[in-house]
Amino acid sequence: MKRRSLVLLLLVAMVLAGLLVQRMTVGALPAIRPLSEFLAWPMEDISKEDVLAARYWTMVDENGRELLITGRRIHVGDEFITGDNRLYRVFRISERTAYSRFVREVGAVFSEQRESILVTWLDRLGLGDYPAQPAAENEGMEPAAAPRGLIGIYHTHNAESYIPSDGDAFVVPKGGIHKVGRVFVENLEEKGIRVVFDETLHLPHDRGAYRRSRATTERLLAKGPDVVFDVHRDAAPRHVYAAQIDGDWVTQVKFVVGRQNPNMHLTRQFALDLKRISDKVHPNLVKGIFMGRGNFNQDLTPLNLLLEVGAHTNSREAAKDGIALFADAVALYFYGPEGELLAPAPGALEETGNRLALRSILFLLGGTAAIVIGFILLNTGRFGSLQTALGPWLGKVRNRLEQGDRSLAPWQEKIRNGSLSMKDKLLQLSSRVRRK
Amino acid sequence: MYTSNVGILILIVVTALVYFGFLHRVLDRMRLNKVEALVILLSMLAAGFLPNIPLLLGLSINIGGAIIPMVVAIYLIVSADEAAEKRRALITTGAVAVLVYLTDKILPVEPGALGFDLDPLFVPAALAAVIAYILGRSRRAAFVGGVFGVILTDIIAWVENLIIYQLHVPIVLGSTGIFGAAVIGGMGAVLLAELVGEILERLQGGPKV
């Protein structure tokens, strides 16, 4: 009985420690909800019936101002970058309303919160965020004489459709979304860009579609594209995605980045870069960037972005017009102004990519090391055994640390002797040459 | 590929190496020695690049992502000493297939529900680990359940397309090879069962001898 209590106590302590660590690193303590609220949560939140009955999830700010209406379920901790680059984080969910707080304005680089201990340490190690090089400095770059690259496009949810044009929110096997994808392809091809449009079906229209579309993503990646887009439509009222751009009413495009994904930092920065370019070309076309739960096969490559082109209540024609404008931003981002064949993207990913990748690598290796040490600890059951296992290696490290830069002395000596003898030889050689 | 960025390339390589490291560790625990585990791992990796074998009406199978993991799983069932162990593996497989299918249908199409909801890619691994552990702390049952659970769910989806929509929708069993849902299901289940199992057993004062 005593042992059982101890186990329970340890489990509670572990949970509390986990929450504390999260508080320290992320800065957002998840709200603890009563069990009744948990049980009352609707399971089927974006079913066909819900979509037709117009039951959505709404994200509001501190003043109750509506930020986002979507068919995607919103959770505590989810984040959204609005069209005017303001980052909001959800702190409470009630019914289908997500209450969020304004975190900060997002610049060209998505930097983590300053209060995070991890980020502070990364900064100390020289891996922190620095302002991106302004786009203007890239303008003098030599144009690459390469043909325009390759872009992959597919639809995980083939049946998604637009009610005003297609008559239903879901049309099996190929819904209106395929026609929107086709327009995206045509507009990119008009700009001289090669596109692979994979219309493979991933039916039935259920949760497993993302598992099945993994094969499509991989097949596209095997062709070596610069980027892969998974094109969807959202479920929301008509006005949410409607925007007037260059005098025409079109639907906006929203980006979705999965948080259960080791490439999340890079995908998020890529989304931010692409939005920045799109904001310049067609202001207000990109609705924002939603960072929610899920993976969306973005673990296979960091440059795989999920797009929501309008909602089921919008007309397919408006969605087509929206995606056609978005093709301008994609072409500019990846291949520079039309006709000039500029190679690199003028985005911050060029400058920040290495650092973000290094950060992801450090997290990955750190996590792996923690798991390996955890396993050793568990299998031996004692810290003493860990010391035995790591003893020889720790001994070497300790010796090296104690010696400090003295351990480099023999090398310094060798280099000095080598350079002296080299100098002598050179002097002899020069005197010989002079004599001749 | 957008490879002008060295960091992104290194990240992809390091992620793959860490993933392979975990896979090797899992195979190593499956009645295989280190060399056998490495050979199986490499053959899964290599065979993942071979073309899929068409079976019938849109259904096909990947060698690295389905056939080799299934052979390993069958070997584990056949070589199990006790009848109870074989039974556990089969029950786990059935339960995982049913539960994954149910979560596919009941939970929202987009990932994210009920607080701790996982992406559909990771659900089979989590379910197989929990069921196999509850049934008898069995790592082998976790592996078998994870692999066969995903493959059965894909077969059910294929049948559903045939019957309900009367469509030959292409379904690849074990698609994406070593990075596919079946391999992640099996291997992830063993790692989870091992991690959770070890923690619980240690907290309870270690195995009673």
Separation, N- and C-terminal Cα atoms of chain B: 56 Å
What is the β-strand count of chain A?
Answer: 13
Radius of gyration of chain B: 18 Å
Given as residue ranges, the uncertain stretches of chain A (5+ residues, pLDDT < 50) are: 19-45, 113-117, 123-147, 340-348
Largest β-sheet summary of chain B? 3 strands, mixed
- Give average pLDDT of chain A, whole number: 77
The largest pleated sheet of chain A is described as: 11 strands, mixed
Helical residues, percent of chain B: 55-70%
- Which chain pair has the greatest contact? A-B, 81 and 62 residues
Poorly predicted regions of chain B are none
Would you report the number of β strands of chain B?
3
Instruction: Assign the CATH class of the largest domain in chain A.
Output: Alpha Beta
List the secondary-structure elements of chain A in sequence, H or E: HHHEEEEEHEHHEHEHEEEHEEHHHH
Oligomeric form of this entry? heterodimer
How many domain modules of chain B? 1
Structural class, from helix and strand content of chain A? Answer: alpha/beta
CA-based gyration radius of chain A: 27 Å
Question: Layout of helices and strands, plus pairs?
Answer:
The complex is a heterodimer of chains A (436) and B (209).
Chain A: H1 2-25, H2 35-39, H3 48-52, E1 57-60, E2 66-70, E3 79-82, E4 86-94, E5 97-105, H4 117-124, E6 150-154, H5 163-166, H6 176-190, E7 194-198, H7 209-221, E8 227-234, H8 238-241, E9 242-245, E10 248-251, E11 253-258, H9 264-281, E12 286-292, E13 304-311, H10 316-335, H11 349-380, H12 383-403, H13 409-435
Parallel strand pairs in A: 1-5, 6-7, 6-8, 8-13, 11-12
Antiparallel strand pairs in A: 1-2, 3-4, 3-12, 4-5, 9-10, 11-13
Helix pairs in contact in A: 6-10, 9-10, 9-11, 11-12
Chain B: H1 6-28, H2 34-47, E1 53-56, E2 59-61, H3 63-78, H4 83-106, H5 123-136, H6 139-165, E3 171-173, H7 181-203
Parallel strand pairs in B: 2-3
Antiparallel strand pairs in B: 1-2
Helix pairs in contact in B: 1-2, 2-3, 3-6, 4-5, 4-6, 5-6, 5-7, 6-7
